[in-house]
Amino acid sequence: MASRSYQNFDVLVETTAVGYRARVVTSPTGETPTVDFALPFDATVLENLLLKLDPGRSGTRRVAQNPQVQAARDFGGPLFDAVFAGDVALAWGRGQDAVSAADKGGLRLRLRLTDAPALAGLPWELLYDRRRNTFIAQSEKTPLVRYLDVPQPIRPLSVAGALRILVIVSSPTDLPELDGDAEYARVEQALAERISCGQVVLERLPRSTVSQLGQWLRSHDAHVLHFVGHGEFDPRLEEGVLYFCDDYGRSSAVTSSVLGPFVRDHDPLRLVVLNACRSAHVDQADPFSGMAQGLVQQDAAAVVAMQFPITDGAAIAFTGDFYGAVADGLPVDQAVTSARKTLNADFGAEWATPILFLRASDGEVFKGIAPPSAPAAKPVPAAAPPPVPVSPPVPVPPPMPVPIPVPAGGQDTAVDRGAGQRVTSTRPTTAPATGDTPDPPDPHDDDRTPLLRLLAIGAVVLVAAGFAFWLAARPDEALVADDGASVSPSPTLSTATTGTTSPSATPTNNAPTRAAEPGPTVEAARFASPPTIDGSAEEWDGHTAYDSNTVIAGRQATVRASWLLGWDTDTYYVHVTVTDPRVRQSHEDQPDQVWKGDSVGFELGVAAPEVRTDVLAPGDVHVLMGPTPDGRVVRAINVPVGKDFKPGPPFVGGEVQTLITADGYTMEAAIPWSLLNVPSPTAGLTLATNL
Predict the structure, then answer these.
(1) Are 620 and 460 in contact, with CB atoms under 8 Å apart?
(2) What is the pTM of this model?
(3) Tens of pLDDT along 333-344?
(4) How far apart are CA 350 and CA 341, in angstroms?
C-alpha cells in the first residue's frame, strides 16, 4: 500500500444565534465559503438514529447489522447535505479535482468542532455523499479526522527501528470481567506477522496501575500506548475516564488530566489507542471533556478512540490492519481509513466506531519506521577467503611507565549475522564496569585524568565476514578496513586495583595504576532481525562472549561480567550477564552516578591513533545501566565536558531490560546509534569502546 500525499480541506463548524455555520478555512483552491445550516433531524429522530447506531444500546452487537447500516446512511446523508451545501459543496468538489491530478494525492477532510461542542459528540465519520454513493471516511483519498486546535506545535518522531507498542489491559475486580490474557493474545495475534519481521515490538504492562505505568515509562520507550479496558463519561467529574486498577485490583477512575502528563512527558510517545467504550464521548459544553480530546490537549499527537462499544472481532481486525499500516509508514489518518475498510468488509455495523483525533497538520506522526526484514537465513559455508595483504604495523607510542603490571579487562567482539558484516571494537574494561561498593574512588576525579581518554582508544571495526574474524584473532597486526585503509590497534589506558582477578582470590589494595597497552579486539555480531529485549540470551546464540572481570575499587573478585555485543544499521545491542551475590542500587535518584552501585557500563567514541589525557572528544559517550532489586533499570548517558564526564541528556531512547537471577542479574539493551553519536554504521567503521 502506497503512502498518499494529502492536502487539507478544513471545515470549521461554529454555533450561531439561530443554528450553526460551516466555514471552509483551508482548501487546495484557496476558496473559503460559508454556509448556515440547522441539524436535519428533530430531537426524537436524532435520538432514534443514535440508538440504532450504538450497538451497545441497541443490543445488536453481533446480529441484525442491516438496520444499523441503513441508519448510518439515514444519519450521514442528510448531515452531509446540510453542511456541504452551496459554495461549500462547490469548494469540496473543486478541491477533489485539484488533488486528483497528483500522483497518489488525496484530500484530507479536517473537521474543527471545538466551537460547536453540542455537535462534537455526533458520529461525523458517517458523512455520506448520496450523489456518489460513498461514505467520505471510507476512502483513503478522503480521510476524515477530528482536528483539534491546540497551541503547541508537534513534530513527527523519527523511529529508529521497530514501532514499539505498550499494551495496558485493565480488568478491575469490581467491574465486568475482562479476560486480560485473551485480550493481549488477540492483539499479539493480529500483529504476529509484523512482530516476526521486526516491524513491531509489542509489550504488556505487568500491572495496570498508574504507578506501574510511571515506573515502566522511566526505563522503557514506547511509541504507542494501547489501552484495553473499561471507559465512560463521568457526569460528576464532567470528564471521560478510563478504569485502571488500584493496588488492590479495584477500579481507579483515571481522567485525562491524570494520564495526560505521562503522555506529554514521554518523548517517544506520539499515538494513543483507546479500546474502551465511549472513550471519545464529550459533554455538550466542553469539547475537551472527553478522554481522547483531553489527551490531545495534553500533547498526544494523535488519539484513536471509540465512539461506540466495539466487538472483540472488530477490535482485532481494526488493530491488525491499523498498526500494520502505521508500521508500513502510512500517515496515521490513512492508516485509520485503511482499517475502516477492513472493518466494513466483515463488521459493517462497526466500521465508523473508531475515530481519530489529530494534531499533526500533515498526518505524519512517525517517520523512519524500519521496513520489514526477512527472517534470518541459515548461513551457507563459504569458501576460504583469499589471502589478504596486511600493511606493516603502524608505530605505537611507547607505554607509560608502570610500576606493577595491570590486567586488561576488556575484550573484543565479532560475529556475523546476516549480510556478512561485523562490528568490531577494541578497548579494556574501565572502572566502573560492575560493582556495588557504596563509595568507590570516583574515576572522574581530576587525579585520574589518564582515564578520561579511554573513549578514544582501541578500535571497533565493521568488516566483511571471515576477514574480520581473522583480524580479531590478530590484534597485534595492522588492521585493514574495507576500503583498504590501514588502522592500527591503538595503545589503551587501563586502570584497576592491582591484584589477581581470580574468582577465588582476594585482590590487594595497592593504589590504582595506569598503563598504555594494546587493547584487545571485540566484535559485535550483526543481527538480521532485531532481538527481543527481555533480558534473556536466547537470540544471542552464536555470538562470542567477552569477560570484563577487572577488580574495581578493592572489591573481592566475586563480581564478574560476560558481554555479548550486536548491531544493525539502526541499533547497538548489548547483553551482559553479571555474577554478583548482592544486588544493590544506591543511586536511583542520581542516574549519572549509577556506577557507584550495581551497574554495567560502556564508553564509546572515536578511535584515535594516540592516547590523550587532556581532553575527551566531544562525541564520546558513557552509557550506564543499573538494575534495582525489583527488576527496574536506572540508566544514564554521561557526556564529555573537557577532560571529564558529566551528566548528559536523559537516557530515554532505546530499550533496556534486566532480569534478577539467583547469582546476580542480566542486562539487555537496544540503543539507537543516534544516541551514541554514530551516524549510519557500515562495514569498515572503526570505533573505540570500554566494557
Answers:
(1) no
(2) 0.54
(3) 999 999 999 888
(4) 11
